[in-house]
User: Which sequence fits this backbone?
């Protein structure tokens, strides 16, 4: 095989490699032997070694074909079988108002400063199972009363949810004191009484199956990343940290849930905040115009407003 490397420092085999036919059985044996000598290296490694002595037309295709037949390489490069995932529960795909079905998790402790020094505080994270909307509350202590107060603020702002998911109580029974305290909250009598009165169904994920609560565990990571990048090592007061959490909540609720197109003519991405505008309220709504205008209005005013209401209906 000719070339323009006559005056180079290469060896004679490199200057004039032996040409091998690509469909010959001898070529396959040579490629297989070089592949084994290179400790079952990849395509590029084996091909580079072969070309130091031989030249095979379309050599990369031949090397790829031989390596695919290698039993040892197939054994160690084989992919494990994937476990078939079950169907999503109805609570996560039903068309319901925001936070009708939610998940709750704790994050922390986070230290805050006060006049006495530093104190621990905890983040209570509520995630909508259908819209992935987020609601954050800052609890001063890890007690049942503190959690119930945070939950009352949550349902007052977002609407009374009916289904709540959380980690299994047994999952919290570890050596960590904070995790043990969470388990005590979930087993407290006041906790069960409150949710029974509110007609809220509490569902626990399976033990040692954290991926069952992935829809709220993922947002715990997002919240921690925001706090770590924004705060760094800063030590804030309870009020300052509560304000930062509210801003983090607003940012994460504005994240896109669908693909962001480059073309302006394409539809805008969906965001969790778009669904929150349609959240329901549990307060009593006026069903008669008299409740709106109040009892102190005159008879003439009532008649005029009634006629105006009938005109709008028509």
Assistant:
């Amino acid at each position: 095989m000719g070339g323009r490397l006559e005056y180079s420092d290469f060896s004679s085999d490199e200057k004039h490699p032996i040409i091998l036919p690509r469909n010959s059985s001898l070529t396959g044996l040579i490629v297989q032997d070089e592949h084994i000598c290179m400790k079952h290296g990849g395509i590029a490694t084996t091909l580079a070694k072969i070309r130091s002595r031989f030249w095979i037309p379309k050599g990369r295709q031949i090397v790829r074909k031989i390596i695919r037949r290698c039993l040892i390489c197939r054994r160690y490069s084989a992919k494990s079988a994937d476990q078939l995932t079950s169907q999503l529960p109805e609570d996560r795909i039903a068309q319901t108002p925001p936070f009708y079905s939610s998940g709750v998790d704790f994050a922390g402790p986070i230290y805050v400063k006060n006049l006495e020094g530093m104190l621990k505080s905890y983040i209570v994270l509520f995630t909508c199972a259908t819209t992935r909307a987020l609601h954050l509350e800052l609890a001063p202590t890890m007690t049942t009363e503190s959690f119930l107060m945070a939950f009352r603020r949550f349902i007052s702002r977002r609407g009374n949810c009916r289904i709540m998911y959380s980690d299994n109580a047994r999952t919290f029974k570890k050596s960590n004191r904070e995790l043990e305290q969470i388990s005590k909250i979930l087993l407290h009598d006041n906790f069960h009484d409150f949710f029974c009165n509110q007609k809220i169904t509490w569902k626990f994920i399976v033990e040692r199956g954290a991926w069952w609560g992935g829809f709220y565990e993922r947002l715990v990571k997002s919240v921690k990343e925001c706090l770590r990048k924004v705060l760094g090592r800063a030590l804030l007061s309870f009020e300052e940290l509560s304000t930062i959490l509210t801003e983090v909540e607003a940012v994460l609720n504005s994240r896109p849930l669908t693909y962001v197109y480059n073309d302006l003519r394409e539809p805008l991405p969906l965001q969790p905040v778009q669904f929150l505008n349609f959240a329901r309220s549990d307060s009593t709504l006026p069903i008669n115009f008299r409740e709106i205008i109040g009892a102190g209005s005159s008879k003439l005013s009532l008649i005029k407003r009634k006629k105006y209401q009938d005109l709008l209906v028509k």
Summary: The first helix runs from residue 12 to 15. The longest strand covers residues 101-114. The chain has two domains: 12-77, 93-312.
